[in-house]
Design a protein that fits this description.
Blueprint (H helix, E strand, L loop, with lengths): L4 H10 L21 E4 L4 E4 L5 E4 L13 H7 L33 H19 L3 H19 L4 H16 L8 H15 L6 H7 L4 H15 L8 H11 L4 H16 L8 H15 L6 H8 L3 H20 L1
Antiparallel strand pairs: 1-2, 2-3
The chain binds a DNA duplex through helix 13.
Length: 325
DNA sequence: AAGACGAAAGTGGTTGA
DNA sequence: TCAACAACTTTCGTCTT
């Protein structure tokens, strides 16, 4: 903490604010201004408009040291990498570097190397992955990472899927099920939870299990872990398809508009979201003159041309009817 | 000739008795 | 467990551009 102790005492008399809630202050109680300045030298929060001290004795949450370059920063920092659920011990344990060098960067002698290889690493492994559950978790999480990398999913999905799998382990749901099935299902569940449109097929293709198994495990997880997952909205698919079809932003915009009207006309309920999204994309592509064939869209949307035609027919019929009225 | 259209039969999943 | 059902797929012939 930095600051003049005399000054701190003085302001502590004039203000009841504690360091804990000073961080929550959003606006000045006197003039309502939101232009507040945190002065860590004086440990105060000051209103920039009327000059009143809004909070005092605030805690400086930054580091107490200064660093002028990267090297100094890495030397002075006392915390490690953030916690991650994607590693079975949350990334807390020590990892032995694969460079066989000592702390000074010198190569190890052959004798020392043998020692490092055979003793240190062996015990390191034994300590890190101690029992069967740990081993299971370590294997499963590496599977999740693999599938997630295959599908180039964002890191947040990877973390979410890892948390879901951990929950499943905690509830003892893995017993008697294939790890691959549950890991794939956890990824699919994470995608659904985050509103990322990925199909069961895509997940199945990136893992070793088939679509049916992923689906079964997914339903099992939903039921047992009590998840409430809303069905994917067609609009989420439109964005995905537009990207894959490299359509202009305008086409996507029109497709969204078509979808909104279709929803109002109750054309969307009970229908597969992919089919509707594909049809809306098709209509939009025709309307804008940036025409895509039904087959192109069908291939990307993983539905048949017939389905696109059926949805498209309904859309055109009803929308034209609405317009004519 | 490619793409669009539509009919008919088949498939896999859900629902309710 | 099984039949009924809706949505969707597959296949194939025909029409349009």
């Amino acid at each position: 903490m930095s600051g003049d102790s005399n000054l701190q005492e003085k302001v502590s008399d004039s203000s009841e604010a504690t360091s804990r809630d000073s961080f929550k202050v959003q606006s000045c109680p006197e003039c309502g201004s939101s232009r507040l300045m945190r002065d860590y030298e004086c440990a105060e929060v000051v209103c920039m408009d009327c000059g009143i001290v809004v909070a005092a004795k605030i805690a400086d949450r930054g580091p107490e040291w200064r660093a002028f370059d990267d090297e100094q920063r890495s030397k002075r920092t006392r915390v490690g990498a953030p916690l991650t659920y994607t590693i079975h011990d949350k990334g807390l344990s020590t990892t032995i570097d694969w460079h066989d060098r000592d702390v000074y960067g010198k190569s190890l002698s052959p004798g020392q190397k043998a020692q490092v290889y055979h003793r240190l690493r062996k015990w390191q492994r034994r300590i890190r992955v101690s029992d069967a559950t740990e081993r299971n978790l370590a294997f499963a999480l590496s599977e999740i990472t693999k599938i997630s990398n295959n599908l180039s999913l964002p890191k947040s999905i990877l973390e979410t899927a890892s948390v879901i799998y951990r929950k499943a382990v905690k509830e003892r749901l893995i017993r008697g099920r294939s790890i691959q099935g549950v890991t794939s299902a956890a990824i699919y569940l994470a995608c659904r939870q985050c509103g990322l449109p990925r199909t069961l097929d895509e997940i199945a293709q990136s893992s070793t299990v088939n679509k049916k198994e992923v689906g079964r495990s997914y339903r099992f997880l939903i039921r047992e872990l009590d998840y409430k997952i809303p069905p994917l909205r067609p609009s989420q698919y439109i964005t995905k398809f537009s990207n894959q079809l490299t359509m202009q932003g305008k086409v996507e915009e029109i497709a969204h508009k078509i979808l909104a009207s279709a929803k109002q006309l109750k054309l969307t309920s009970g229908r597969g979201p992919t089919g509707i999204a594909a049809a809306a994309s098709y209509v939009a592509s025709v309307l804008t003159g940036e025409r895509k064939t039904q087959r192109e869209i069908a291939e990307i949307a993983q539905v048949t041309e017939v389905t696109i035609r059926n949805r498209y027919k309904e859309l055109v019929e009803r929308l034209m009817f609405e317009i004519s009225i």
